[in-house]
Amino acid sequence: MQRLGEKYQSVEAFGWAARDSSGHLSPFVFSRRETGEEEVRVKVLYCGVCHSDLHCLKNEWHSSIYPLVPGHEIVGEVTEIGRKVSKFSIGDKIGVGCIVDSCRACESCREDQENYCTKSVATYNGVHYDGTVNYGGYSDHIVVDERYAVKIPHTLPLASAAPLLCAGISMYSPMKYFGLAGPGKHIGIVGLGGLGHIGVRFAKAFGSKVTVVSSTAGKSKDALEIFGADGFLVSTDEDQMQAAMGTMDGIIDTVSASHPILPLIGLLKPSGKLVLLGATEKPFDLHAFSLILGRKSIAGSAIGGIKETQEMINFAAEHGIKAEIETISMEYVNTAMDRLAKGDVRYRFVIDIANTLTVTRS
Ligand code: NAP
Ligand code: ZN
């Protein structure tokens, strides 16, 4: 079925898509729209591999639209600009994250929190206002309204900046919003993966004290020595967890799979907050008393607004914050997904789109 708007998609594009919930990615030719008046066309240089890509590929959130081209940690170069574009010029290095449009009129949009607009449009697996399905950054180029893109400062290495567009902002925003960013605050970061490791770096740059809570004892050295955490707890070690009870002002939980949260609530000081970022499929087991005694709260947080994303990128450039990455080729992406599912990544895969995508087109 042709969707409204597809007839305007006249520019050929090439990427890798999954055709079903096996999640297997393979070459895919499709079309993108002409560059609109307020839009830029971006040649994708690098795209990070977020665990959300894996959730979507496998339809773990029961909302996947196939064919599905993932990718929302995009860094690229502007190759074409619309007549009314004022923020970017041709040749600029820019970033595109998880959303590419929103209603622009609701309270959230007016307050620069487009990420909470109920009509926001996801970069991939989202349906655009013209009725077309969006395809993400595992592709040669993308067209985006300039309002939903950010500038990448010259001092940031492009490949390791890519994960900031989702993982970076997803950690930065709740630390600030929930008052955990700054000296005197003790943050727990649960799950030392793509989000978690960048979170440690931001938290340290804010001056907070950081303890990583991990299910992998072998990550202790990286947490403490490479990322600069102040402490490391193995979540399955009851003695360690017991000794740390009541010590944290807030916890940011990035775990991508079902896991017990009661021990995490126990780590909080009175009035402490547990902020859930990991988008797990199954509901959590929760007892009211774990919150009542100590006036604790559980919250969620989703990425951040575009203005805050620019602020986060500028802060990262100023403080030399980047992701710890393993750069991969497009051909390697299915192996990378298998490894990500097993937790075998230190700490984010980034696809070198510019140098490795075209050769996969036969
Ligand atoms: P990731 O790189 O796979 O990291 C997740 C980490 O969680 C793993 O490294 C592992 O850390 C821990 N973990 C995984 N399975 C576990 C299990 N069964 N039990 C305990 N710990 C486990 O994933 P990511 O890209 O950081 O994304 C994490 C989650 O956040 C995903 O669900 C993703 O969809 C979601 N997300 C949310 C937002 C948002 O704005 N809310 C934005 C982006 C992503 P340890 O080895 O240290 O335990
Ligand atoms: Zn993501």
Written description of the protein model:
The chain is α/β, with parallel strands linked by helices. It has two domains: 10-166 and 304-315 and 322-360, Alpha-Beta Complex (Quinone Oxidoreductase, Chain A, domain 1); 167-300, Rossmann fold, CATH 3.40.50. The chain contains twelve helices and 17 strands. Helix 11 (333-341) links the parallel strand 16 (325-328) and strand 17. The two termini are 27 Å apart. Zinc ion (ZN) is lined by residues 50, 52, 72, 98, 166.
Give me some keywords for this one:
binds zinc ion; 2 domains; 17 strands; Rossmann fold; ADH_Zn_CS; alpha/beta; 362 residues; six-stranded parallel beta sheet; Enoyl reductase (ER) domain-containing protein; 26% strand; Quinone Oxidoreductase, Chain A, domain 1; binds NADP nicotinamide-adenine-dinucleotide phosphate; seven-stranded mixed beta sheet
